[in-house]
Structures are given as structure tokens and as C-alpha cells.
């Protein structure tokens, strides 16, 4: 019986929500695949997180925490995964389909002659191989893909595509791996890490609810209103490109074709017209709310609930109403 | 210093996409095709390296003959030369196949730095830059929102969800840029005219020494074999705010009903 590897994305000792979703997805397919689920934890904190990983389906945790795991770019993770693959009997690796992790998968695929499928939103097993569903062209087309037989399957899992479900597993077996880094792996160094988030709002990629603002806010201060609404709902805050281009909100919060792709259960857009490039990043949200004063704005075509009105009248009133209901 | 900017031809996002039912690939000759907009940021960065450091910049495109207009378009921003790899056998390549062709093309020319877009607007895999770096055995400093070259060293601000990492390496290296890095200028009339007579080298797979079975649909390791359009969405509720605040109340009711509160 083989193993399905899940590369855990983590921050400050905690697995990110997407990692728990990946473990759950893997655990749900384990019987069909005839394999057990093993997490791969690179960096510090494996022992502390082991029980959580076990609860979501991992029966083993491969880990590596050397000094060198932190100060260099991409290749240490690639080489650590190579080392895991030499011990584990695995023909599939799930990884978080986010920018930096995609680089790890891409370089690993070249090294081990694997195939990569990114942004996977659905999975099933056929004849022992994985069939991946992904949406392309901003969600206009739903496609089915596979990695060629005999090749390592590197599957990048999209955020919020699979539920994170505790399964009540026990403590997983911890297996330390030895990694001898090549010279190449230490050629690019991390000089410093600039954390710019000051709030404890959830990341828009992970958040169940995302509140987004656009050019219709008219000014940078408009985002204070967005943040206020977000905090009532426990949501993350995103922006359209018109708003990030204007410098009202940082680029890393941009939603759309050239920004983040999000799939929350609820998206609330205010003062956003719903241009095709914006929709490409959010139209897979389960519920879409639009607040826009122009009844003809294209965002209303995909909205489950639309309010035609001035956001500066609607949003403050909405915040008031929501606060009242929360009691 | 020699810089290469790999650019892709993509269907215009705003236009209709035509999928070839036989090959299950985007028909790049149907509908309007453009220079991938993300590549404009890479081109702008290369133009600045040219202005500031006297870099010599070549654009590289892997794609059919009809994509030559996109190479000329890229040259119109003031870049020096074009290199296009064209071969029927390339059709249907996956990201790693494309990366193999790009890497082979780079092996045949001199370069110190390759500046990619972080993604293409159609495939959006972001896989190509790191794969090319791996094939060439150099660092991949990707998702740059700032880059600086001094002597033999490159420093990049590598964007992530919580801010950015400052990373550096020596050249040669591969970088990819995000659109926050700069504001691309428009090509000048002079640039557009000059682009027509800039040197443009066209190579086949045989010229590069790539075996046809390594690339294209046959060499693709990850393949899409079925697709369907997204099911249409049911029309939602739309309420008009009449100034009384009733619309906000109805929205709040709806959010409660859906258990978001
Ligand atoms: C290559 C490329 C990539 C792109 N990538 C992205 C991307 O990743 N993400 C993205 O978002 N865009 C992207 N765009 C830009 C996109 O085409 C649109 O220009 C952009 O999304 C518009 O942002 P917006 O909706 O905030 O502004 P607008 O389109 O100007 O819409 C503003 C809306 O606000 C409404 N409004 C104004 N005042 C009020 C008020 N007081 N109350 C209520 N409503 C009000 C108006 O009716 C209008 O509908 C890209 C474009 C290109 C060419
Ligand atoms: N066919 C191609 N020819 C040249 N460059 C390409 C090609 N495909 C992708 N690229 C480059 O790789 C980047 C990332 O694309 P992708 O990995 O497809 O998201 C693009 O912005 C281009 O710089």
C-alpha cells in the first residue's frame, strides 16, 4: 500500500486552512487510491502540529527542520521533497496551489520527471490514478486533466475547494528526513521577510467571506468602511485592480485575473463593476453580493443578491443592521 | 548585460475563447490574440535595465508563425532583437514542455538575466519561469514587485500573501514579475516603426536539438482530456435602495437566512 503525500503549508507553527482541506481531500480518497495519507512538514514545528495533522487524516508526518530550510529560496523545499520521495512509496503529492509553492512543484517536476496540475477544485481516482477537475478562463470552462501514467502526480489544490473535516485520527508517526542540500539550493538567499499585515483579518485566499472594494469607493478612506464591514462578518478584505492601481489598497489584495483567485462561500463587492478580469478571480464564490449604484453594472449578472444604490448609504446601514442582529 | 524576455501570445481575455474540439487546445488563430498583458510589465522592466545599465534585450516567443506579430509588438517597446521558436510539433505542449523549449532556446544564446511575467493570462499556471530556471540550473526569483541589478548581483522583493521577502542571488538568474512592479509605458511611434526592421531569428525544434516527442501533445505529462462550459447561474435577487435603508435591511435578512451572521 502506497502513500499520498500532502505538502503542508504552514505559518507560525500552524497548518494553514488549505493544508487541512488538502489532508481531508486526501483522506477522503485514500480508500479509492489504496493508499495512506502522509503529511510533509518542512521547517520548524512538526511535533507541535502533529496531532492536528493526525486529526485531519495524516497517519505519518515526514519532517525536516534544519537551519537551511529557512534562509534560501525554493530549492531547499524541492530537495527535501526529493528526499521524502526516496523513502516514501508515493506517486502523488498534493500541494497548496499558491504562488510560492507552485515554484516548488514546478522545479520538483523537472527533477523527477513528474507532471503538475495547478488550481485543482475536484478529484477522483480512476484505475489507481488521479483525475483532476479545474476551472480555466476565469471559471468559464470546467476541465478534466490527468498526469501521464507512470509519472509523479503533482496536484496543486485550490483554496476552499474541499471541506476541512476532522476525522478523529490518532497521533501520526513522526519520521525525520535527512537532506543534504546541493550548492544550487543555497544560491539564492532570503535577506529579510517583510510582513506587512497588521490586522488579524483572514487572508483572502483562505477566508470564508471576502469583502471587496473598487473604484466606486472614490477614495482611499473608503477601505475603512470595507474593513468595518469585514470585521462584523469576520471577513478578509480584497480590492479590484482600479483600487490597487490607485494605491488605495496593496496589490497583494487584488482579486482577479492578474491578482488572487478566491473561492469564498460569500463575496460582497462594493463599487466594483465586475469587469471580466475581476470576475476571473471571484466568480467561483458560492454566493455573490454586489452593491453598485449602476443597475447595468455587469457584476449584477452573476450576483445572487444585488443592491442598486450608493454604497455610502447602503454599507453603513448594513453594518448597523448586522451588528443589531448579532446582538 | 544581456537580458531575455520570454513573451507569450494569448487570446484577448475580453474576447471569446475558441477551443478546438479535436485537440482540446485553445485555437490561437481564432478570435483576437494579443501580447500577454502580464509580459508588458516584464518588458518595461527590461527597458529600464536597458536605460539604466545599457542592457541588450532579446524577446523570445514559443509559438506558431502567426504569432510573429506579437514578437514585433514586444520589440516596439524599444527592445533589440527577437527570437521565435516555431514548430508544428510544439502544439499542445503543457507548461513543462513549453519550459523545455524555452530552456533549449536559451542554451543557444548569451544571457545574464531572464525576465518572465509571473503568469500568462490564459494558462495562468505560473509554472514556466521556475521550470526554466530548474532546467538551466539557476535561481528562480519569482513574483518580483521590485528588482534591482548591481554588478553581478540581483535583489528582488518577492511578493507573498503577507508582504514580501527580500531575496538575492548572483547572475545568471531567472526572475518573474507581478504587475505591481511598474507602470508600463506605451510604445512610441518611432519604436513601432523601428520594430519592423529589428533582427528576428526563427528556429525550429531541430535547430535547437529538441526531440519532437519531448514536447507538444505527445510529450505533455499533464493533459486535459475533457471540458464543459460552466453551468449558467440562476438570476439572483436585485433590490433598489430608495434611500430608506430598506435595501440594506433586506440584504441583512438574506445574510442571516444564509447563516453568514
Ligand atoms: C490585463 C488586464 C488584467 C486585469 N486584471 C485585473 C484584476 O486582476 N483584477 C481586477 O479587478 N481588474 C483587473 N483588470 C481591470 C479590469 O478590466 C477593470 O478595469 C477593473 O476591474 C475595474 O475596477 P472597478 O470595478 O473597481 O472600477 P470600475 O469599472 O470603474 O467600476 C466602478 C463601479 O463603481 C460604481 N460606483 C461608483 N460610485 C459608487 C457609489 N458611490 N456607490 C456604489 N457604486 C458606485 C460604478 O457604477 C461602477 O460600476 C485588468 C485589466 C487588464 C487589461
Ligand atoms: N509560449 C511561450 N513563449 C514564451 N514565453 C512564455 C510562453 N508561455 C509562457 N511564457 C512565459 O512564462 C510566463 C508564465 O506563464 P505561465 O507559466 O503559462 O503562467 C509568461 O508570462 C511568459 O513570460
Description:
- The complex is a heterodimer of chains A (327) and B (261).
- Chain A is α/β, with parallel strands linked by helices and 327 residues long.
- In chain A, 28% of the residues lie in helices and 30% in strands.
- Chain A has 8 helices and 17 strands.
- In chain A, the strands form 3 sheets. Chain A has a 9-stranded mixed sheet, sandwiched between helices. Chain A has a 5-stranded parallel sheet with strand order 14-13-15-16-17. A two-stranded antiparallel sheet of chain A has the order 2-3.
- The radius of gyration of chain A is 21 Å and the shape is elongated.
- Chain B has a single domain (2-219), classed as Rossmann fold (3-Layer(aba) Sandwich), CATH 3.40.50.620.
- Chain B contains 8 helices and 15 strands.
- Chain B has helices at residues 37-53, 68-75, 95-107, 128-136, 189-195, 205-208, 216-219, 246-257; strands at 2-6, 9-11, 19-20, 25-26, 33-35, 56-62, 81-85, 113-117, 140-150, 153-160, 163-170, 173-177, 200-203, 222-229, 237-240.
- Chain B has a 9-stranded mixed sheet with strand order 11-10-9-12-8-1-6-7-13, sandwiched between helices.
- In chain B, α2 (68-75) crosses α5 and α3 crosses α4 (128-136).
- Chain B starts with a strand and ends with a helix.
- The model of chain B has no long low-confidence stretch (mean pLDDT 93).
- Classes of the chains: A alpha/beta (327), B alpha/beta (261).
- At the A-B interface, α4, β7, β9, β12 and β16 of A face α3, α4, β9, β10 and β11 of B.
- The complex binds flavin-adenine dinucleotide (FAD) and adenosine monophosphate (AMP).
- Residues 214-216, 240-243, 254-259, 271-273, 275, 277-278, 281, 291-294, 297, 310-312 of chain A line the site of flavin-adenine dinucleotide.
Amino acid at each position: 500500500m502506497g502513500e499520498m503525500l500532502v505538502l503542508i503549508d504552514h505559518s507560525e507553527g500552524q497548518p494553514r486552512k488549505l493544508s487541512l482541506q488538502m489532508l481531508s481531500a486526501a483522506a477522503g480518497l485514500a480508500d479509492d487510491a489504496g493508499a495512506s495519507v502522509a503529511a510533509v512538514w518542512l521547517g520548524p514545528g512538526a511535533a507541535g502540529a502533529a496531532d492536528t495533522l493526525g486529526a485531519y487524516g495524516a497517519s505519518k508526518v515526514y519532517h525536516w527542520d534544519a537551519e537551511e530550510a529557512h534562509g534560501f529560496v525554493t530549492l531547499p523545499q524541492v530537495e527535501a521533497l526529493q528526499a521524502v520521495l526516496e523513502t516514501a512509496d508515493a506517486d502523488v503529492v498534493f500541494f497548496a496551489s499558491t504562488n510560492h509553492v507552485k515554484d516548488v512543484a514546478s522545479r520538483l517536476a523537472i527533477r523527477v520527471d513528474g507532471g503538475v496540475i495547478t488550481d485543482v477544485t475536484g478529484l477522483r481516482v480512476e484505475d489507481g490514478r488521479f483525475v483532476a477537475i479545474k476551472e480555466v478562463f476565469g471559471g468559464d470552462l470546467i476541465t478534466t486533466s490527468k498526469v501521464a501514467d507512470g509519472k509523479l502526480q503533482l496536484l496543486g489544490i485550490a483554496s476552499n475547494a474541499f471541506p476541512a473535516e476532522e476525522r478523529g485520527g490518532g497521533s501520526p508517526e513522526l519520521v525525520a528526513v535527512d537532506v543534504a542540500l546541493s550548492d544550487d539550493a543555497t544560491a539564492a538567499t532570503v535577506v529579510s521577510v517583510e510582513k506587512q499585515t497588521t490586522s488579524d483579518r483572514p487572508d483572502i485566499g483562505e477566508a470564508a467571506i471576502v469583502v471587496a472594494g473598487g473604484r466606486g469607493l472614490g477614495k482611499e478612506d473608503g477601505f475603512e468602511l470595507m474593513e468595518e464591514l469585514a470585521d462584523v462578518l469576520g471577513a478578509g478584505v480584497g480590492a479590484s485592480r482600479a483600487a490597487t492601481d490607485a494605491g488605495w489598497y496593496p496589490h497583494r489584495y487584488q482579486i482577479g485575473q492578474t491578482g488572487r483567485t478566491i473561492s469564498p462561500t460569500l463575496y460582497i463587492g462594493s463599487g466594483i463593476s465586475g469587469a471580466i478580469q475581476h470576475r476571473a478571480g471571484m466568480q467561483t464564490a458560492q454566493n455573490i453580493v454586489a452593491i453598485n449604484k449602476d443597475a447595468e453594472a455587469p457584476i449584477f449578472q452573476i450576483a445572487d443578491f444585488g443592491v442598486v444604490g450608493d454604497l455610502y448609504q447602503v454599507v453603513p446601514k448594513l453594518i448597523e443592521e448586522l451588528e443589531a442582529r448579532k446582538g | 548585460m544581456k537580458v531575455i524576455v520570454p513573451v507569450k501570445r494569448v487570446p484577448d481575455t475580453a474576447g471569446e475563447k475558441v477551443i478546438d474540439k479535436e485537440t482540446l487546445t485553445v485555437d490561437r488563430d481564432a478570435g483576437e490574440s494579443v501580447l500577454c498583458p502580464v509580459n508588458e510589465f516584464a518588458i518595461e522592466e527590461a527597458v529600464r535595465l536597458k536605460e539604466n545599465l545599457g542592457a541588450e534585450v532579446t524577446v523570445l516567443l514559443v509559438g506558431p508563425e502567426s504569432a510573429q506579430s506579437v514578437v514585433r509588438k514586444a520589440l516596439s517597446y524599444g527592445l533589440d532583437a527577437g527570437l521565435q521558436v516555431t514548430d508544428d510539433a510544439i502544439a499542445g505542449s503543457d507548461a513543462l514542455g513549453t519550459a523545455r523549449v524555452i530552456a533549449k532556446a536559451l542554451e543557444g544564446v548569451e544571457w545574464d538575466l531572464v525576465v518572465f511575467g509571473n503568469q500568462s493570462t490564459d494558462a495562468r499556471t505560473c509554472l514556466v519561469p521556475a521550470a526554466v530556471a530548474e532546467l538551466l540550473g539557476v535561481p528562480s526569483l519569482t513574483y518580483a514587485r521590485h528588482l534591482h541589478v548591481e554588478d553581478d548581483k540581483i535583489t528582488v522583493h518577492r511578493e507573498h500573501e503577507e508582504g514580501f521577502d527580500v531575496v538575492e542571488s548572483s547572475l545568471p538568474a531567472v526572475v518573474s514579475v507581478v504587475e505591481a512592479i511598474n507602470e508600463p509605458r506605451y510604445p512610441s511611434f518611432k519604436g513601432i516603426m523601428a520594430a519592423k526592421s529589428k533582427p528576428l531569428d526563427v528556429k525550429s525544434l531541430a535547430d535547437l536539438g529538441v526531440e519532437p516527442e519531448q514536447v507538444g501533445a505527445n510529450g505533455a505529462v499533464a493533459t486535459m482530456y475533457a471540458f464543459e462550459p460552466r453551468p449558467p447561474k440562476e438570476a439572483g435577487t436585485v433590490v433598489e435602495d430608495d434611500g430608506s435603508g430598506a435595501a440594506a435591511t433586506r440584504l441583512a435578512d438574506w445574510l442571516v437566512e444564509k447563516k453568514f451572521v
